[in-house]
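Researcher: I'm preparing a figure for a lab meeting and need a structural model of a single chain. I don't have an experimental structure, so a prediction will have to do for now. The sequence is pasted below. Please return the structure as tokens so I can convert it later.
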Amino acid sequence: MPLTPTQLEALRALLDRLIPNDEFPGALAAGTDKFILQLLTHACAAEAPFLAQGLTQLDTEAIARHGQTFATLPITAQDALIFALEHNRTATPWPAAFPAAAFINRLIDLAAEGFYADPANGGNRDGASWRMIGYDPLLPARPSAP
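Model: Understood. Here is the structure written out token by token.
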């Protein structure tokens, strides 16, 4: 199930706040959005309607609070909205089977998965997050301490 352009815009804005650029590439620069989109058409296809509905609801929530979509909000308002949703503090009704906190937490999980994934799996473009943490996949693994 492909996302609508509006849902895709909300997803990218949300990922940009979850893992923003700093001295290292953030979620979007590392291809996390593409990783998640690939998951939604394959391994996580059953979740796609749930996540698409959550992205639509994210915009509904932003409009109810600020009169504009999530992607067009200033970053401070985006961050405040993410925080509120993590605590299920909503201005609009969210489905009981899919509360706001469940939506945000699932996107956080998917963002981390895509950001730190093996680049061969479609995320972590050019090993950006691996460089950030000093991981070199070509070095042999250190033995575990006894």
